[in-house]
């Protein structure tokens, strides 16, 4: 008794398991988190190092350089890059995917410990950050005071850093909350120079007095027989109102209080950053998800808790300035609609071609069983509902119906032989189940290499391949269990078709019969001109098609219109933050007037330790994220909006550059721009000249926009050059000068005024602003010495100089990057122009030019895909060998694969898509689909030959009989892919080339297969016969 017969006689166990899987699948579908794309960024560790008072040049030379050298020795490092500006160096280490973030963090921490003693004294402890897809905030809040509220932004910052942040961190699924926007509160002690001189004091004495009188000091332990008690001197008792009464010094004339030499203000630190939410000044708050968490889970938890949190802060206004929530939910909703349309269209096409209502109904019933089983598998594997996984679900529609129809048709054939429903179900299923399994395995076989290919390709396409494999295997299980069980009730021995079925049958036959006759006659003619059809026509057509690939162009991933625009900009060197804010206000006004505007978040500068807002920007650099309504509800595409904004921004004086680009302009966050020409070498001045020349040449590249470089050599600074002989005479060192200058002009933190339940107020000591504005203020600065105070000009020369705005390093060398963005032009078309224009650029010895943009990752990814395709073809061949018990027949069957490439290339060219990673995946998938048509032909021919028919008769019979199922299979699969090719969902532009390749390849190969597979069958058979004759001849001799 076969499995099918045992199951149909006692269906309860397996049916219960299947129904349980369906129920669990439905629950899994409802519970699965949503996302736009799978997490794909390389694991990265960022180290932020702060050295108060240090110049950008010192940060690069004395901090970033030695740290880079040590971190470059770590295992599985891909790239080490650093960015150094005044007082701050950010060093990032990017690792291979196989390196876990936990291991990377431990290795980086250990490396820093090894070299810490050799780094400059005064360097603050390093801050180490794990950078992953979870570092991207799920939501950005803009917080500002309500109208009429007594609060200002400094107080809002204080509330955000304390009570509000703590309330948000208590929300489940929220891993981190980061606050940004300047306005750090501080108590500023402004010491007057003339009063300081009158009393014979210096700034160091003021700082020491504040520090000594506001300090908790351990007093030891009081140890008793039964217990012990800590003794503490509670000296932290300064109060804001009594600060002026502090005794700074005692002289014979009496006590000198702080009020005698200074004034005290409660202000905020001089800002190096600011945040605007929807065009108005605010404090920004980023909500981050856990590393292993999901975007929508964190968002749902936030939305449940946030109304209660808002009620706790009635004086604050909260606005959402940035979030991908709407994009994700709209995109997934669009994908579900596309899936519905794909199912309906495919079922309709199958019904028209089958012209059997009951058979179509039974095939349609199998779809929810298959899909819910697939969703259950996805949930077990921890997948999300995103564009990639749902694309796989939609792609599977046509393939699933193929499995069902093959079994249904065979059961129906047994019905027509007069067998009762039970026997028809048993024998029809048993007869076809192994062949059906072989067809399923061929498609699965070509997908398996994607699961183990490694790199970025595996990260993006693994889920697509996994879901397709789950769907195909689920479909096979359903086709040999659910279909035969339900067929006993739904399928009946039928005589004549009803009126509708007869009408549809006549229409389909009216199309298919001429097609059969055409291909039979064409084969008869081609058989007499076999070498002509195989050589000049067949191979020639393939070569001509492949020669069109340069016209098609290549991308790593296609651009997409999500309605989100990023605007990165920089104002001229030495521009103050207030002037930068004025320029930003003009930019935001232009943005708000753009039709379709929804919201925006503006970040300028950076704050050490606030990694999600950006850690490398100077006070002249900023980023604006703008959301517009989706492309289905506006007239212009995102690139037209970008172009208009770019033209308007260029009219604003004070902007050095402005990059306007679409969200997802680069597939990975580690790719700075689509075109990134990196120049490396030891001398920044030479790098500066080379960068200018590269920028000038890239302006001649058609389709390249927003061209700029990532640093300039025009930042003004004042250099103090100590006279070592004079310093020695006065018993001073350069360090003494630096400390005095930094304290007077930037200020020094003397202590912290503690406030219960808050972080406290920093007490900063410095000169008033009016006494530190000019060069003469610096020259006349009094330096305390053992011989009395002397002006700075006595022991140092002071001169103006120009330096880099920021120091960039990569691969242990200074670098400058020239960046360029695009509209939708293929990367290879741009890169070809770039290479041609830079081919004769003279480079001094020791300087190198490299391409670090999308093209670099393309070469790696396409190399992996080539290996995957070769392995897929090998697995496909060896999966066919045991099925056909032949080493030759699989070669005949696989002839359909190069035929499909013809349609794939012309499909991309006609529709205007570029060859990219999803298109390459489409070709791999196509190779597993198109062979099924060849299998139908070869299987029929071999069975007909086994029954005693001649070769010609068997081939013509195969063409006539198999045309309908071949066309039905192809049209069903093509119809299911149409919503993807039509880009029916936001972000689906990323994967539409996959469907275009599959549709084009399947369409062309369907018709060419009916001719070329029989031709190659005759060719291989004739060759085999000739070889047999030769062997027999040699054996007789």
UniProtKB/TrEMBL annotation:
Keyword annotations from UniProtKB, A to Z: Membrane, Transmembrane, Transmembrane helix
UniProt-recorded name of the protein: Efflux RND transporter permease subunit
GO MF entries: xenobiotic transmembrane transporter activity
Top-level taxon of origin: Bacteria
PANTHER family attached to this UniProt entry: PTHR32063, SWARMING MOTILITY PROTEIN SWRC (PTHR32063:SF0)
TM helices/strands, residue ranges: 12-29, 338-354, 361-381, 387-411, 432-457, 463-487, 531-549, 865-884, 891-911, 917-941, 961-982, 994-1020
InterPro entries documented for this protein: AcrB_DN_DC_subdom, Acrflvin-R
Keyword hit for Membrane: yes
A single cellular component GO annotation: plasma membrane
């Amino acid at each position: 008794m076969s499995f099918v017969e045992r199951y149909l006689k006692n269906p309860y166990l397996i049916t219960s398991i299947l129904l349980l899987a369906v129920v669990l699948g439905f629950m899994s579908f409802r519970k699965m988190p949503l996302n736009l794309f799978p997490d794909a960024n390389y694991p990265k560790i960022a180290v932020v190092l702060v050295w108060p008072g240090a110049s950008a040049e010192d940060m690069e030379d004395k901090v970033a350089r030695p740290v880079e050298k040590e971190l470059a020795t770590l295992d599985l490092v891909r790239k080490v890059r650093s960015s150094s500006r005044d007082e701050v160096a950010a060093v990032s280490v990017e690792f291979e995917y196989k390196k876990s973030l936990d291991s990377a963090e431990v290795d980086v921490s250990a490396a820093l410990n090894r070299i810490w003693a050799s780094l400059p004294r005064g360097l603050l402890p390093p801050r180490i950050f794990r950078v992953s897809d979870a570092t991207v905030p799920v939501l950005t809040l803009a917080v500002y005071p309500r109208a009429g509220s007594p609060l200002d932004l400094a107080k809002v910052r204080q509330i955000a850093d304390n009570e509000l942040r703590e309330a948000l961190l208590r929300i489940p699924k929220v891993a981190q909350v980061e606050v940004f926007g300047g306005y750090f509160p501080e108590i500023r002690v402004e010491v007057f120079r003339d009063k300081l001189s009158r009393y014979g004091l210096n700034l160091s004495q003021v700082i020491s007095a504040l520090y000594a009188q506001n300090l908790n000091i351990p007093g030891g332990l009081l140890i008793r027989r039964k217990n012990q008690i800590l003794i503490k001197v509670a000296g932290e008792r300064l109060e804001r109102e009594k600060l002026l009464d502090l005794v700074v010094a005692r002289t014979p004339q009496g006590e000198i209080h702080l009020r005698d030499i200074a004034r005290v203000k409660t202000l905020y630190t001089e800002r190096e950053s600011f945040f605007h939410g929807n065009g108005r000044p605010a404090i920004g708050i980023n909500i981050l998800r856990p590393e292993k968490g999901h975007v929508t889970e964190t968002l749902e938890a936030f939305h449940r808790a946030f109304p209660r949190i808002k009620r706790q802060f009635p004086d604050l206004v909260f606005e959402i300035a940035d979030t991908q929530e709407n994009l994700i939910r709209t995109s997934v909703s669009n994908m579900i609609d596309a899936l519905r349309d794909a199912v309906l269209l495919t079922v309709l096409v199958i019904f028209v071609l089958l012209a059997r209502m009951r058979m179509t109904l039974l095939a349609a019933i199998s779809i929810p069983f298959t899909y819910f089983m697939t969703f259950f598998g996805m949930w077990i594997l921890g997948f999300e509902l995103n564009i990639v996984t749902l694309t796989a679900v939609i792609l599977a529609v046509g393939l699933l119906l193929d499995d069902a129809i093959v079994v249904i048709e065979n059961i129906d054939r047994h019905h027509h032989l007069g067998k009762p429903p039970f026997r028809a179900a048993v024998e029809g299923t048993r007869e076809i189940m192994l062949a059906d399994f072989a067809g399923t395995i061929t498609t699965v076989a070509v997908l398996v290499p994607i699961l183990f290919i490694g790199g970025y390709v595996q990260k993006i396409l693994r889920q697509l391949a996994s879901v397709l494999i789950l769907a195909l295997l689920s479909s096979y299980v359903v086709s040999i269990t659910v279909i035969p069980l339900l067929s006993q009730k739904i399928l009946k021995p039928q005589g004549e078709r009803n009126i509708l079925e007869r009408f549809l049958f006549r229409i389909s036959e009216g199309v298919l019969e001429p097609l059969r006759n055409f291909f039979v006659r064409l084969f008869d003619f081609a058989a007499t001109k076999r070498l002509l059809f195989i050589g000049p026509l067949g191979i020639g057509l393939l070569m001509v098609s492949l020669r069109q690939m340069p016209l098609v162009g290549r991308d790593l991933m296609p651009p997409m219109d999500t309605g989100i625009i990023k605007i990165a900009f920089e104002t001229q060197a030495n521009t103050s933050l207030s002037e930068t804010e004025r320029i930003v206000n003009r930019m935001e006004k232009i943005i708000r007037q753009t039709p379709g505007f929804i919201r925006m978040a503006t970040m300028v500068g950076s704050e050490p330790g606030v990694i999600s807002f950006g850690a490398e920007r100077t006070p002249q650099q900023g980023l604006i994220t703008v959301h517009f309504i989706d492309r289905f509800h506006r007239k212009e595409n995102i690139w037209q909006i970008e172009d208009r904004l770019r033209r308007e921004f260029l009219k604003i004086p004070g902007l050095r550059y402005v990059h306007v680009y679409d969200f997802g302009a680069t597939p990975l966050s580690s790719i700075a721009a689509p075109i990134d020409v990196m120049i490396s070498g030891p001398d920044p001045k030479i790098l500066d000249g080379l960068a200018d020349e590269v920028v000038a040449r890239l302006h001649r590249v058609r389709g390249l926009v927003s061209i700029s470089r990532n640093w300039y050599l025009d930042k003004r600074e004042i250099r103090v050059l100590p006279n070592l002989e004079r310093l020695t005479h006065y018993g001073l060192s350069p360090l003494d000068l630096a400390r005095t200058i930094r304290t007077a002009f930037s200020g020094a933190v003397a202590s912290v005024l503690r406030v219960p339940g808050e972080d406290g107020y920093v007490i900063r000591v410095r000169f008033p602003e009016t006494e530190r504005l000019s060069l003469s203020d610096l020259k006349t600065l009094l330096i305390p010495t053992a011989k009395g105070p002397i002006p700075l000009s006595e022991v140092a020369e002071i001169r103006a100089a120009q330096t880099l705005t920021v120091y960039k390093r990569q691969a242990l060398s200074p670098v400058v990057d020239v960046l360029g963005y695009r509209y939708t032009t293929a990367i290879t078309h741009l890169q070809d122009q770039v290479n041609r224009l830079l081919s004769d650029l003279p480079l001094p010895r020791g300087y190198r030019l490299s391409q670090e943009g999308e093209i670099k990752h393309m070469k790696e990814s396409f190399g992996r895909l080539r290996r995957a395709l070769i392995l897929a073809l090998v697995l496909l061949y060896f999966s066919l060998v045991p099925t056909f018990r032949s080493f030759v027949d699989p070669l005949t069957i696989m002839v359909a694969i190069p035929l499909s490439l013809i349609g794939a290339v012309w499909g991309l060219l006609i529709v205007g898509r570029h060859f990219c990673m999803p298109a390459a995946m489409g070709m791999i998938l196509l190779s597993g689909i198109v062979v099924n048509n060849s299998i139908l032909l070869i299987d029929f021919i071999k069975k007909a030959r086994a029954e005693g028919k001649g070769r010609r008769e068997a081939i013509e019979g195969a063409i006539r009989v198999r045309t309908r199922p071949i066309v039905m299979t192809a049209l069903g699969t093509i119809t299911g892919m149409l919503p993807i090719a039509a880009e029916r969902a936001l972000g689906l532009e990323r994967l539409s080339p996959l469907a275009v390749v599959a549709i084009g390849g399947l369409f062309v190969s369907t018709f060419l297969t009916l001719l070329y597979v029989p031709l190659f069958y005759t060719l291989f058979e004739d060759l085999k016969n000739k070889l047999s004759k030769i062997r027999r001849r040699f054996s007789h001799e």
